Please model this.
Amino acid sequence: MSASPLPLIPLPASVTLTEGAAPYRPADPSDLHLTVTVDAAAGGPEAYMLRITERGIQIMAGGPAGAFYARQTLAQLEHDGEYPAVVIEDAPRFAYRGVMLDVARHFQPVETVKTYIDHAASLKFNHLHLHLTDDQGWRLALDSRPALVEKASTTSALGDPGGHYTREDWTEILEHAASRHVTVVPEIDVPGHTHAVGLAYPELAADPVISDLVLETVETFGGGLPLPGHPYTGWAVGFSSLKHDDPEVDRFLSDVFTELARITPGPYLHVGGDECHGTDPADYAVFLEKVTAIVAATGKTPVAWHEAGAAAGLHPATVGQYWNYVQPEPGQDAPARAFGSRGGLIMSPADVAYLDMKFDADSPLGLTWAKGVTTMQDAYGWEPTAILDGVDPDRILGVEAPLWSETARDLADIEQLAFPRIGAIAEIAWSPAGAHDAAGFEARTAALISRWKAAGIRIPTP
Ligand code: TNX
Model:
């Protein structure tokens, strides 16, 4: 079917309403007469079948994640204590369905991260990428390098207070994510976006490179120029770099990524690699080759922003994360394409998938650099396998919606930027390619918005 009359996002692979059957109304809302069977024969680990009859609810799932997703679907189907009589057979299109939260520009407390995990998991996302370090702060305590949070975590962008996650906080986030079948992908961004590292280890940091882009950003948004040894609270990018050809930097990378691997259960460690405008391309390539080799040696799979694809000797297992546009700018597609023959690609085109772009020109929240305002139609109207010519669709691992936090100070800001566009990315990530249907999606979104609001989620009123 092309459009579901039911308020389901993401749209399941198959929805069949049982003709003539009355909705199911459990006599006792706390007892749904629910049977759950988990059996690999029911499909992949995330697949499920959900059958609702007048007598009760039956779930058959390929694995515990599938049973969890069946319950998310069930929650969207409930209306005034009733459930439609329906048979749903469902499985995801993409294995990697991610959201990203930037907790470096504005630190976010554990509770906020947990709530965002809940929001994402309810839409069947299964990865949370945490951007843990940037020029403005280092947010994860590491035993091997305690000075990082001691000296470089106390402030945020706009001069707001900072913060960091202790090891206990980190465990709490990981456990909460796991309980929602969400894998955490931690990012330590190198060699650029490292002004904060210089607060703790001045000897590792190269001098800031003040480009025209930096001057322009400071002119438009304020925040002043970055000064070595002083916390940076603006949001210019591309001025900082770790040194090259310095054995102390190698030791730093090895300490940081080895410890990160030890405290992270998931398969991926993100090494960043974006916007190194002040770094010589040859030095950049050597750096990315080194850091992806360090990560691979820990047994984890490195992930890097797509610029890193230009480095010929990148570790061959490295996954690329594409963040240029749906129509790639000249020179952006070649490095991204190079991941087709490495670890594959996660697609985050900035003009459609960046939840920190403004949803409306008048809102103080959000940025506009990625082709201005990103509407719901923009967020829904793209095809992840059609962006990079010459990359086999099988090499597209999935989709991720980043939310950078230059303007997002707290959960209310995050929710207003994310909702309802996060639903569009969820559907692109989960639903079959052929099921996409803008009119149906709009109707389903309208139906869900009132529920999201009733659940306390802050959603901008159009
Ligand atoms: C670009 S996209 C960045 C971030 C900014 C973001 C703001 C990418 C890999 N880097 O440093 O926060 O724009 O939208």
